[in-house]
Amino acid sequence: MFYRENGQFKSSYVSDQQMLPILQDRVFMGLLLIFAFGAVPLFVSDYVFLSLLIPFLILTLAAIGLNILVGYCGQISIGHAAFMSVGAYAAYNLALRVPQLNFLVVLVLAGLIAAAVGILFGIPSLRIKGLYLAVATLAAQFFTDWLFARVKWFTNYSSSGSVSTAPIVIFGWKVDSPAEKYLLLLAVLVFFTLVAKNLVRGHIGRAWMSMRDMDVAAEVIGIRPVYAKLTAFAVSSFYVGVAGALWGFVYLGAWEPLAFNLNLSLNLLFMIIIGGMGSLLGSYFGAAFIVALPILLDQVPSWLGVQMSTATSSHLASMIFGGLIVFFLIVEPHGLARLWAVGKEKLRLWPFPH
Amino acid sequence: MKAKIAMLAASAAIAAIGSTSALAQAKEQFFPVLSYRTGAYAPNGIPFANGYVDYLKLVNARDGGINGVKITFEECETGYATDKGVECYERLKGKGPTGATAFHPLSTGITFALTDKSFADHIPIVTTGYGRADSVDGSVFGWNFPLGGTYWDAADMLVQEIGKKEGGLDKLKGKKIALVYHDSPYGKEPIALLEERAKMHGYQLQLLPVTHPGVEQKSTWLQIRQQRPDYVFLWGWGVMNSTAIKEAVATGYPREKMYGVWWSGAEPDVIPAGDGAKGYNALVFLAPAGQGQVHKDMIKYVYDKGQGAGKKEEIGEVLYNRGMAAAMVTVEAVRKAQVNYGKKPLTGVQVRWGLENLSIDPAMIKKLGFTGFMTPISTSCANHAGEAQAQIETWDGKKWQVHPGVIHADNSILKPMIRSSAEKYATEKKITKRDCAKEAG
Fold this sequence. Notes:
The complex is a heterodimer of chains A (354) and B (441). By secondary structure, chain A is mainly alpha-helical. Chain A has a single domain, classed as ABC transporter involved in vitamin B12 uptake, BtuC, CATH 1.10.3470. Chain A has 14 helices and 4 strands. The model of chain A has no long low-confidence stretch (mean pLDDT 90). With 441 residues, chain B is α/β, with parallel strands linked by helices. Chain B folds into 2 domains: 27-149 and 290-380, 3-Layer(aba) Sandwich (Rossmann fold); 155-284 and 392-411, Response regulator (Rossmann fold, 3-Layer(aba) Sandwich), CATH 3.40.50. Chain B has helices spanning 2-23, 42-63, 82-92, 108-121, 151-166, 185-188, 191-201, 218-227, 239-251, 267-270, 293-303, 318-341, 348-356, 362-367, 411-429, 436-440; strands spanning 28-35, 70-77, 125-126, 144-145, 176-182, 204-210, 231-235, 258-260, 281-284, 359-360, 377-378, 389-395, 400-402, 407-408. In chain B, the strands form 4 sheets. In chain B, strands 5, 6, 7, 8, 9, 12, 13 and 14 form an 8-stranded mixed β-sheet that branches. Classes of the chains: A mainly alpha (354), B alpha/beta (441). Chain A binds chain B through residues 46-47, 50-51, 55, 96, 149, 156, 159-162, 164-167, 176, 251-256, 258-259, 261, 295, 298-300, 303-305, 309-311, 313-315, and chain B through 12-13, 15-16, 35, 37-38, 42, 46, 75-77, 79, 82-83, 86-87, 90-91, 94, 108-109, 112-113, 115-117, 120, 132-134, 183-186, 188-189, 191-192, 209, 212, 421, 425, 428-430.
């Protein structure tokens, strides 16, 4: 009843091309942003910021990056934590060796370096497809693991191979309280989501999607596979690289190569599969699911007052978590984003369905 | 159905809020426990956690808390993963009336990540025999306490031990030493010192990393078979240790020439290798295996009442004792700080004072029932570790035989290394150093 586009006519190209064509969506998004920027920092505890919201925001950015490659361009990668680590170590070295650089500049440069590495590892995608490509991207994972563990220069000759970052200062604003970190990340995420949204609905995004749907047909209608695939790798790695830099600087503060291991790559992949491939909204849902669920499951027994050893509750949490993933994939193989879309569709007719 | 779930969630939320507010006024000292009872490192994580938790229970049951302030604690499962450890830290740091007392991460990776946070949160991080070697320098690492020794101490002691075996450190010239290490901050810590010593004595250092979790070591031991190093230092944790010993048996490398760090010298490390482990050596410090007065108390006050975290037979194992000792130093630090700040729940800042003024002498060790399981520790603002000392133990197939003769690390080598490494950290992180001389006065 409330969610209807009746009477909203598009009378110009501008209104036809806008990102959120329905008034209700615009209002909802506006309120959501006001809530996220204005209200959340006022009443959320530090624990929720540091353990839920901050990892959620960073991993959402990474999931958007991976979704561009896997969901939009159809190139499977199971080595994306590698590009995160490239971003993180690039940012670390830039901040260390050129201390006068602004953190935002460091972030963009780290993303660009990750993009360059991404293009390099994307080259095999021109020849191989599907699962074979997935295996090839694994090489990136193992290569960066090796590189950052063995080449001492990257870790500034730290004796333990672990690096730690300097505090973040942007134009004299020292980002150290959890709420400030949250606001910084939220701003970065909103900005990059806008960019991604415009990329995927523009001509580049169409080229990616046609590559995904049928590469031969795409080539026939004049889309260059080299250009389409490598831009997807570059943009995807850029996003993931920025996310990696944030993961290191804002969330961990100190890390070793193990922080970006295969597990993280797989988690990113799960995020977009559960959230929804080829959907930016799905990246948000997927990241929320993967970040929040294990933590919630872990704490449920103590909330309910059940005395349980931490080992049992942690085993139980992983079992339920695994079960839920299987459940969601059976019930809704297109991910949580699809559920959302179905819900919206139902809402159009509510309360008088046919 | 949906309504039911919503009700359940709501009641859970209310319960959570209720329990935290009830704690607010209590006369309690909250001890966070980061443990790992799952994953590849569980065989070693479980006995340590049991020892730690049991000792806290013992203090409550036997003494009624620390001078009447009851100890409360909560465990959080880290699985030895850094990100999970950070989450646990955030979850536990604010609990209890005055927040967390001190954290024992029991993982070098988590220690590194928490060190970064300690500067803002003002909660001490106690690392008994692990952690960053350079965090001995309390003027830079204000909140880290690597009590009882670091990996640089350990590596230094091992080099001294084989030097003694060869008949003098100068005899090490031309020898080959292989370091089989866990490829993580933990395993990499000793490398800096071993390289420094290699420059001094002219031995050849061979670095053989083993990737997490360490069950695949075939290629490592193939290299050892080809190169035939004179000694192998083992820097492993969890299943990696027992796998390494099994591989040594398979390659025919003499176990007598293998020396483990103190984290590679517990029962779960050698028992899976069976008879093959006979002759294997490891460092041992703070708490060797066995039982003393404190264990009798433990059985009487905790286990006989059915409150024990583990099995009765496992009391007195190496890692159990080490967990107990870790809990003991923290409890003693709180007791010390109470002298200064009063017998009430203390904050992290106050506990740090206790940790910096710790003086656990033999008389006190005796009083606590730890005779034979604990070395004296005294700390200061500038020195957060105290003097490190350890012994060598050998596995005879049944139990660990501790060799007589205490080894001390050579501070003339360690001090300059610690200073320069801490300096580097301070400039990297833009930390203003504390003036210890001023704070003392």
